[in-house]
Amino acid sequence: MTKICILTAAPDYFEDLGPARATYQRLLGDDISFRHWTDPGDLSDYDLVLPLLVWGYQRDCPRWFALLDQLEQQQIKLANPVSVLRWNSDKSYLLELEKAGIAIVPTLISAALTANDIAQAVQAFETDQLVVKPPISGGADGTYRLRNGEPLPEDIMGKKMLIQPFQPAIAEEGEYSLFYFAGIFSHAILKLPAKGDFRVQEFLGGSESGTDCPAGAQELAVQARQAAEQILGIETLLYARVDMLRDAMGDFRLMELELIEPSLFFEHATDQGAMFASAVEAA
To answer: For the residues 214-232, what does the mean pLDDT come to?
Structure first.
């Protein structure tokens, strides 16, 4: 009998994991196991371990990377592999994808954020509105929209941060997410932030709906996924969520490539997640 384990958030994580757990039990069987990533115990008996619910790992980076090292040393079979999880944990990977020819949202990295970094980014991007976020982040933690001259929030001052030009399309049209399982396209959604916000997370008032892929969206998604596979030296990612939006010229640009613990929104898939379940079974 195949044994599957899904790693979940720590016991004190603020979001309710119940609905997500129920969805994975529906797709993979009631006998799958769930263990907290902060204390997973011995995972050597499992045929496959999936880190699909390790929400909040960015709040304890040393423990997260120590876990990845441990799983790699013990040769635990993960999907996606440890090398993918380690690479995808730090959003600096965007610059690697840009070097590989992928159109990303323009991104600068500050090793220790200062007001001067913001002023230089304003000049470089020719805009007075910026988005700053930690390179290791999730759930919009530490993410701010700043105007030139505004004081820096204390919790990001002097820290390593990504700096990007604010993209008006996030509020005007929304952010597209495309989902791939074992390299095959499954479905797409369109996410919108609450009025006056730019963050699309549901717990911040964002919403999502199923959508068809506009022209150019799948092309960018496939290019980004394949570029990541080539960089990482793997054949095919078991699961991938590709987040993108349009720039001022109407062209799609990659926001993030989610390969660790993305919400997969199976309710918007025509097969309700059957393709994902088949990919896991094959793995």
So the answer is: 96
Averaged pLDDT for residues 62-81: 96
Average pLDDT in the chain: 92
Query: What is the CATH classification number for the domain harbouring 189?
Result: 3.30.470.20
Please, which residues have CB within 8 angstroms of residue 222's CB and are 6 or more apart in sequence?
none
Contact in structure between 110 and 146 (CB atoms under 8 Å): no
Q: Residue 281 falls within a domain, yes or no?
A: no
- Is residue 35 within 8 A of residue 67, CB to CB? The reply is no
Rounded CA separation 121/108 (Å): 8
Structural contact between residues 24 and 52, judged by C-beta atoms closer than 8 angstroms: yes
123 and 13 in a common domain:
no
Per the rule left: phi > 0, alpha: psi between -120 and 50, beta: everything else, 215 is: beta
Q: Do 244 and 195 belong together in one domain?
A: yes
Contacts with 113 (C-beta within 8 Å, 6 or more apart), sequence order: 132, 152, 156, 157, 158, 159, 160, 161, 163
Residue type, 49: V
SS3 state of residue 11: coil
Domain span at residue 208 reads 93-103+170-269
Which pLDDT band holds residue 48 (cuts at 50, 70, 90)? very high
Say if 275 falls within a structural domain: no
* Claim to verify: residue 45 and residue 121 sit in the same structural domain: no
Query: In this predicted structure, what is the pLDDT of residue 198?
Result: 64
- pTM > 0.90: yes or no: yes
Per-residue pLDDT tens for 162-199? 999 998 888 888 899 999 999 999 999 998 876 756 65
Q: Is 80 exceeded by the pLDDT of residue 205?
A: no
The C-alpha atoms of residue 169 and residue 129 are separated, in whole angstroms, by 13
Instruction: Let me know whether 233 and 201 are in one domain.
Output: yes
